[in-house]
Amino acid sequence: MNEIKKEVMHVGEMASGAALTVPVYRIKGRTDAPSVYIQANMHGAEVQGNAVIFQLLELLTNTKINGDITLVPYANPVGCNHKNGEYTLGRFDPITGVNWNRMYHFDESIIKPFVRECIGKTNPVIEANFKKLMIESIEEKLNHNIYGLTTGQRIAYQLQRLAHQADYVLDLHTGPISSKHLYCPEYAQESAQYFDIPHTLLIPNDFDGALDEATFCPWWSLQDAFAELGIEFSISSASINKESFTVELGSQEQIDLDVALEDAKSIMNYLQHKNVITTTGYLPKTMTRYGCYLKNYKAFYSPMGGMVDYLAEFGQPLAAGEPLARILRMDNYGDGDPLHYISLDKKVIPILHFASASVNQGTELYKVFSEYFEF
Amino acid sequence: MNEIKKEVMHVGEMASGAALTVPVYRIKGRTDAPSVYIQANMHGAEVQGNAVIFQLLELLTNTKINGDITLVPYANPVGCNHKNGEYTLGRFDPITGVNWNRMYHFDESIIKPFVRECIGKTNPVIEANFKKLMIESIEEKLNHNIYGLTTGQRIAYQLQRLAHQADYVLDLHTGPISSKHLYCPEYAQESAQYFDIPHTLLIPNDFDGALDEATFCPWWSLQDAFAELGIEFSISSASINKESFTVELGSQEQIDLDVALEDAKSIMNYLQHKNVITTTGYLPKTMTRYGCYLKNYKAFYSPMGGMVDYLAEFGQPLAAGEPLARILRMDNYGDGDPLHYISLDKKVIPILHFASASVNQGTELYKVFSEYFEF
Amino acid sequence: MNEIKKEVMHVGEMASGAALTVPVYRIKGRTDAPSVYIQANMHGAEVQGNAVIFQLLELLTNTKINGDITLVPYANPVGCNHKNGEYTLGRFDPITGVNWNRMYHFDESIIKPFVRECIGKTNPVIEANFKKLMIESIEEKLNHNIYGLTTGQRIAYQLQRLAHQADYVLDLHTGPISSKHLYCPEYAQESAQYFDIPHTLLIPNDFDGALDEATFCPWWSLQDAFAELGIEFSISSASINKESFTVELGSQEQIDLDVALEDAKSIMNYLQHKNVITTTGYLPKTMTRYGCYLKNYKAFYSPMGGMVDYLAEFGQPLAAGEPLARILRMDNYGDGDPLHYISLDKKVIPILHFASASVNQGTELYKVFSEYFEF
Amino acid sequence: MNEIKKEVMHVGEMASGAALTVPVYRIKGRTDAPSVYIQANMHGAEVQGNAVIFQLLELLTNTKINGDITLVPYANPVGCNHKNGEYTLGRFDPITGVNWNRMYHFDESIIKPFVRECIGKTNPVIEANFKKLMIESIEEKLNHNIYGLTTGQRIAYQLQRLAHQADYVLDLHTGPISSKHLYCPEYAQESAQYFDIPHTLLIPNDFDGALDEATFCPWWSLQDAFAELGIEFSISSASINKESFTVELGSQEQIDLDVALEDAKSIMNYLQHKNVITTTGYLPKTMTRYGCYLKNYKAFYSPMGGMVDYLAEFGQPLAAGEPLARILRMDNYGDGDPLHYISLDKKVIPILHFASASVNQGTELYKVFSEYFEF
């Protein structure tokens, strides 16, 4: 049985002085083996990842561990506990409105000077030095601030400091009401098939503040900077392999331990493939897998206010002209049109929809794969 | 085809001066036939009643109408449009916290003086005079206030003025995540079977501010006051029949027009039975019907904070000791008990549970029928 | 220098498992001397009481202590830390809307049986036994609950358990934007003059869930029950003296340590008068003191939606017809009346007004003393 | 007396179908004279601008008007009416968290093609064509959207369509608790002195979604693009003059009609200087005026959670080491440091502070001018 070490990380303070803490679970591996960092519940309502971490810990206890495994449930103690009415208002800082998953750090300007210093060094040395630089950069942000950090930055940076120590990073999220899907950097598309998730979003090297980007963009940018100099430094190689995913587990505001076990097995399969663990028990499921480039992942905003009967099934191609939803407008009954069918003029795969039937004109109704493909 | 008349009722004003309005639909019947008042969406997230009113209007268009029918969707324009994050914060006034369905009016002190004036009058005269008194009372509250009314009172009283004009009142609500159930005054238990709803709560003559109470308590108290004098004045008779129900249609934050059609048919059946309409198309479904007195309708508060995997199926008896839910406490993993099974030591029927997996210690987890019975 | 003992009381748990704790400060006195319990910040935005407790502790350190002194700042760790936008949404449980200061416990039915058992006992024995009964009742509520307690009850009962151990109870609150005022049970009017607070509300023996009521109503009801039997049991006597006040310190969302020192001195004066401490440094200020019975403390609800320029000065009599406020309705500019002056047709003393300029029709605009008197 | 025309602009729909409308006031001038667009209350709690528009309309009624004047109070009907507790949660969309003043539109890619087409045209023709292009661009965004617009974009774009028709744009805001200050594009610094506002922020040509930027950045970018080609096209000239300011009027959640009259007069002075009106009654006040480049406008985030006694006076230079605030941490009393003084190690001018005494670690405590200068 593997030893699971628990720490409690202090990430902030509330007005009453109450400490904001995050539990950190570690299973120690060999330093020369690939390592993984997995966190859950950065958005307060997206709780299912905690159940997946629970099931992962249960599974990992008796699995052969190669590299370090770090697991952080309840990653955001503000978002996790912030209720407004019965639901959890956890997508953004309730004071500022800033999305909790847009506060991670990456300063692209560190790349070029670093590359210049690396000329002539071996790839393993470069890898080690760059990892060190990333961790130092984030510690610099945490420790040397005249004007301070925002609440969300302080939380994000402390999580990021843990994430930068791993080769693979999984950030467990959910959609509002949603099918499972995966945010995957374009260069790591091959790895998407190890997850039991039929829909994959392929994302480019653009940093927008999320954890997956904050952990793969630096390496990707480094690879690109070397490539510009004609030097090969591959982050998808056998020797240096860096990947980071946002795993969307389904719908928010729900815990289902049985489904969580399935998702934990899917992650075990990825970890086995990446040699973080050695086990034979896990195989990816056979399924049709759809891919879509991020630029073709479209949000569809409601063309009117009203009450929505969501019709389109998730995950399956929806033909052009087929209804996504019908919108009830009882105020129009008798002197207008009380029922409106909403459709698109092209084929799409609906991935998620808004969490409530009540929408304003302009509320994000659906997110869909357009221009998708099988892979 | 029956004529459906639409009015727009002005119920208040926002800070910008924007009018708070409510649509009122009326189908005119004979004045000597029994009448009904139906409203929906007093709580902002409980939107399905609007869809039921839509389907009712569709069905009523070609049905023989006997008495007046008044339908009010979107009854609460504040609650209906108040979002916090993706969900609708519509159970209480966001400024004061007061439940929107606890602001109706009934002043029991009007009963005794009224009864004294009625000695010797016929029941139809008494009925007409009491109805007039109730409407006048509410108009007095609306129009003669030195210190004013709260936002919620102004909305509630205007709805109540409409409701007092009808013999039967249906207030369409939903639970958070919930099975269908019916709040029914004890004296009207016989009518509960005309609805396709398997669970009925029998409520006593205690006024607590809700619309159903505000419309049946006055008549019930009148009946009781006469009975104390040895005079029979029955509100469950062929000549005078007053009933008021809160119809809980299922879960909040959802619109399903197909399910709404089923519920509309169930209401059509009740209206046909009460002779508000004449039709032959609707029959109550055969089902096991469970009753429970309000005092035995128990809220179960979470014994701990945590993330809940709700296990108990709605609507079916759950044996003593069987789990209602299991609660995940990842913070205890490794040095405590991460999974807690929650059960009761008596047989109950779970009716609804909390809308979110995240609960504080003391959050209302489930509501259950205890001491229930078949009828 | 007196020893100040600090404890941390665990009052609940959040969804993440985070403990809800409250700091409790105690200064030990003689058991035969009168004791006091002081708490602050039960409503989240009403923070100034914490500063008053800070200044009290500073003053008490070098004061001669007679009886036990218990001080609880940050009494409500949920309300205290719950932000929505920049402000603190702390007047009610954000999940249920229930006012945090309406969840204390008093079951009047314990009085009569207790009185029957007391016949023939001495007043000091009765006092001791009743205190014991009150504490046992609240512990019974805390410990023996099949269906559990709400989050707010669990917090309130634990505070109440501390309060029941003291002779004098001060619950430090503030209004929204407000002058200082005092809620005082009618029988304790004489004590109001020891506070440097010009406005006193005299409240009857009606329990509505607040801490002041929950601590004085039991004693008052006991006194009344004995009186009905012709037995004198006075709670305003030299030997048995029980008082409980809600002290409204001014406006919410503000900390001012200098003003807090003034208020701490005012409380020191009361404590010296009650012999909880012995000191000569504190004397009540000379001021015109106004009283008002609770039934004459009127809330004035806005007769329209709009944006309010509050005009009436706090604390001074306002003649009939003089404007309380003027309400801007820009939407009416050009085709209506953009500016409305609001007044009452009787003399009042404005005590507090709403915290924001934006009001709906029906928002509580002002609270005023009507039918006030000097004392 | 000038004619003030009122229109009601439909900018969206709520879930109930309720129309979101904005009142638009217009005073017609000569087409060859400079025109102004003034709006208020884009952020819901920042209501004082409505009162300023009220006073402006009162003043303008009897003033000689040269160019078109358009005034829009209550610019954001969602934010304006959204309450959470007593306060207005109006800085961001309550569903998404996106700041309402970050949703305006400017697509820099239109500049270069436009410039290429302009070679050889006269400046007045270029000006007219560019204005037309800006309006067409925004109408294109409003009318041709397959996937729709967000709620906030729809509101913002409709306001922007009005703003693009004017030469001068004033967006009336307030801070949380704040002194008056002005956001001014660097090239328009000379105009800042016509306002009775002692503090001016000078902002560069960087578009971040706010209305002032959305109206001056296009012209500034156009000027720069011509300059790159060696062509002079000045937007600060006598013939072509484009300016746009965010005017911060003081603190939010307050209406003061007397102060509003002062601010209206300050704006009248600017309009007279710009020849939008002709009048002799208004002169800028003599005052020390401080300027600060945007990059030196620093937010200071709280280094700890706690309850803040704000000490620094607004608008006056604060010496290095002098306290901005002291933070109370009652939970530390007895076993830690309950009072912390917060200061900076350089001279600054405090401009605004957070609206509440309760702050988390990382809450924005103050905003200050650093590296400021007199002008």
UniProtKB/TrEMBL annotation, chains A, B, C, D:
Keyword hit for Hydrolase: yes
Reported cofactor(s): Zn(2+)
Family matches, as PANTHER family: BLL3975 PROTEIN
Biological source species: Colwellia hornerae
GO molecular function: hydrolase activity, acting on ester bonds; metal ion binding
CDD domains: M14_PaAOTO_like
SUPFAM superfamilies: Zn-dependent exopeptidases
Key words, A-Z: Hydrolase, Metal-binding, Zinc
Classification via Pfam families: AstE_AspA_cat (PF24827)
Entry keyword Zinc: yes
Classification via InterPro entries: AstE_AspA_cat, N-alpha-Ac-DABA_deacetylase
Protein name: Succinylglutamate desuccinylase/aspartoacylase family protein
Domain Succinylglutamate desuccinylase/Aspartoacylase catalytic residues, every copy: 33-273
